[in-house]
Design a protein that fits this description.
- It is a single chain.
- It contains seven helices and 14 strands.
- The radius of gyration is 18 Å and the shape is globular.
- The strands form four sheets. It has a seven-stranded antiparallel β-sheet with strand order 2-11-8-13-7-5-4. The protein has a three-stranded antiparallel β-sheet with strand order 10-9-12, with no helix packed on it.
- By secondary structure, it is of the alpha+beta class.
């Protein structure tokens, strides 16, 4: 894993973080920011990964679009078995949370080439965490994620195609951390807001983004097929200090210990 220049910066795009020192300064507070951490890993073609994952019992997918209810139900029923050439023409979003099951085949060497260097990079700089796991997202053009927030920080890595990651420059104005903790965010679409409040970062293959825990966001797909992998960091801490918004989550769990850690991964929406 190495750092280097990013060629997608523009006047309305935040500066890309390329050094460990800059990351340590920026990671605790929004807004989100581009990163450039280069992993030495080559994925299989996105369509091949889709063809494999759509048949897996743990995959989650949603058929989207303006078609009538019956068409969506028919597509849902056929999603695992229809020809892959047909599937990629349907509007859908898909997520898989348990990628470690595929480290021996579909994601061969992912543990050695991505997860171990990533953990080593963080640990060497004083970071600790309770969980660090990859999540894979696939979607077709026009698809959008839900409007949501995650309990964990995410290193979003665009692998194939183009997506735009939308969030807010000042999330406290739109969703205070206390409200995010109890799940007041999730909806199919974002609420009405001033465009100038928004941070929209277009991500192409190789681009990376740091998404802060408990910040509302949504993601739109701009290419025929797009795939990204998020390295989800649960309970990330640097030399005893959590991020500002995660302190609200910690406070909530102190008051509700029966809920602590019971919805960590499951709170990730797609």
């Amino acid at each position: 894993m190495s750092t280097g220049p990013n060629h997608h910066d523009s006047l309305d795009r935040p500066m890309t973080i390329t050094t460990p020192e800059d990351f340590t300064q920026r990671w605790r507070q929004p807004p989100n920011f581009p990163l450039d951490l280069r992993f030495d890993y080559l994925f299989l073609p996105a369509v091949d990964i889709l063809d494999h994952l759509r048949r897996d019992e743990e995959v989650r997918f949603t058929i989207l679009g303006e078609e009538d209810w019956q068409v969506r139900m028919d597509h849902t029923a056929a999603f695992r078995t229809a020809p892959i050439e047909e599937i990629v023409t349907w509007p859908f979003r898909l997520v898989h949370f348990n990628l470690s099951r595929f480290y021996g085949d579909l994601l061969e060497d992912f543990q050695e080439d991505v997860m171990i260097p990533g953990r080593t990079h963080l640990s060497a700089r004083g970071f600790t965490w309770q969980r660090l796991a990859p999540i894979l997202f696939l979607s077709t053009e026009g698809a959008s994620s839900t409007y949501h927030n995650d309990n964990s920080h995410g290193l979003v890595w665009q692998v194939h195609g183009t997506k735009t990651f939308h969030s807010y420059l000042d999330p406290d104005r739109h969703l205070p951390a206390d409200a995010a903790v109890i799940g007041e965010t999730t909806a199919e679409d974002p609420p009405e807001h001033d465009r100038t409040d928004r941070q929209s970062i277009t991500m192409r293959p190789g681009d990376q983004l740091w998404s802060h825990a408990l910040t509302p966001h949504w993601v739109t797909t701009e290419s025929a097929l797009a795939m990204s992998v998020t390295l989800s960091h649960g309970g990330l801490c640097h030399r005893g200090r959590f991020s500002e918004r995660e302190l609200a989550l910690r406070s909530y769990w102190d008051e509700n210990p029966g809920e602590a850690w019971t919805h960590d991964l499951r709170h990730v929406r797609y």
